[in-house]
Amino acid sequence: MTIISAPDETVKALETTAARMAEARAAIGRVIFGQDRVIDETLITLLAGGHALLIGVPGLAKTRLVQTLGITLGLTDKRVQFTPDLMPADILGSEVLEQAAGGARAFRFLKGPVFCQLLMADEINRASPRAQSALLQAMQEGRVSVAGHYHDLPKPFHVVATQNPLEQEGTYPLPEAQLDRFLLQIDVGYPDLAAERHMLIATTGPAEAPPQAVLTAAELVEAQDLVRRLPVGESVVEAILALVRAGRPETSALDEVRRHVAWGPGPRAAQALMLAARARALLDGRPSPSVDDVVALAPPVLRHRMAVGFAARADGISVGHIIARLIETIG
Q: Which of 79, 72, 84, 50 is CA-nearest to residue 214?
């Protein structure tokens, strides 16, 4: 096994950044109760420079989490409620024809809500595919094209989308190409009894604790740069490659994968695992990621990048079951 050490300056930056991220994590936890895993996975996504898809039933503070993230991390945030009649121009913006005092006419671009640092796409699967596709270029390239002209988005730029898994009327499933743009799919569950009791008391009194600013956007960008400088050992690289390639029916040695998986994770899944593992190490104050990070992040990285066939679903075999089997091969 090859062990790579981080330079001294990287270790010092790591200690400082980890302490700042611990402050941010605590500040968010004072507003969002009983969702420590969700908070951590969302912070990992932002540290890795990616986008997150939050899936959970109504009332689990998904919207409040995004608003709190914007304040705590010092990001300009905007929210778009996705509906069936939403148009791409409602997200990206549009050009309008203006006439100057002298009679000259010219087009002026009016920026849409996508021109922010943290965009909340609320109930993203309620918009038509045409509106959904308006985010594809923004999420991948950090810019948008309107009327043949490119417009750069602010940096950093992150999309945190929410999706309700219960109501299917009037929804449009996200295409695989767009799902792949999300670094993590974060499943939001119910809080435990103690957290729900705390939430009940804290949120029904005369005043709720407001979110506190901890970081700035510039500090977040520095943390993202640091994530990419963290060294990764050969064992972690091999674990990532083994996990991702074992999830593809064409290259897997697992009979379950060959029989039940309709399509497996692509190279972007391996890239996401590498970045997310580094970000998780930074969040915990460790100088480099371990195989344990890969194991912990495999479900949120892979669950939206693979699908099982109809026969597998009829037999009760889910993507989660397949991911568990893949983890066993590297555990």
A: 72
Residue 163, strand partner residues? 55
Q: How many residues does the chain have?
A: 331
Q: Quote the pLDDT of residue 265.
A: 94
Q: What angle do CA 128, 132, 138 make, to 5 degrees?
A: 160
Domains in the chain, please, with CATH?
230-331 (1.10.8.80)
Q: Which two tokens stand for residue 119?
A: 């965009």
**How far is the CA of 57 from the CAs of 39, 62, 163, 189, 272, in angstroms?**
17, 9, 8, 8, 26
- Rounded to whole angstroms, the Cα distance separating 153 from 99 reads 27
Alpha helices in 230-317 (DSSP H): 234-246, 255-260, 267-283, 291-302, 310-314
Tally DSSP H helices, then E strands, for the chain: 15, 11
Q: Which is nearest to 93 in space by CA: 83, 78, 103, 104? A: 78
Q: Are 77 and 116 contacting, i.e. CB atoms less than 8 angstroms apart?
A: yes
Arithmetic mean of pLDDT over the chain: 90
Q: How far lies 323's CA from each of 4, 50, 305, 331, in Å? A: 29, 21, 11, 12
Angle of CA points 135, 138, 141, to nearest 5°: 140
How does DSSP classify residue 163?
E
Alpha-carbon span 122 to 65, nearest angstrom:
12
Q: What is the pTM of this model?
A: 0.91
Give the C-alpha separation, 60 to 33, whole Å: 9
Q: Sign (positive/negative) of CA torsion 327, 237, 179, 38?
A: positive
Q: Using CA atoms, how far apart are residues 257 and 183, in angstroms rounded to an integer?
A: 22
Contact 157, 117 (CB under 8 A): yes
Alpha-carbon torsion (315, 316, 322, 327), positive or negative: negative
- Give 311 or 267, the one with higher predicted confidence: 267
* Identity of the amino acid at 228: R
Average pLDDT over residues 129-142: 88
Amino acid identity, position 306: M
Angstrom distance (rounded) from CA 87 to CA 82:
9
